[in-house]
Amino acid sequence: MGDELEIEYCGYEARNNQTICTWEIKLASGVDWNDLDSLKEWTENKVNLGQYVGIWFKRINKGQFPPKYNLNIRGIGEDGRCAFCRRFRTGLKKKTKDNALSYSEIGKCDFE
Ligand SMILES: [Zn+2]
Question: How far is the CA of 60 from the centre of ligand 1 (A)?
Answer without folding.
Answer: 19
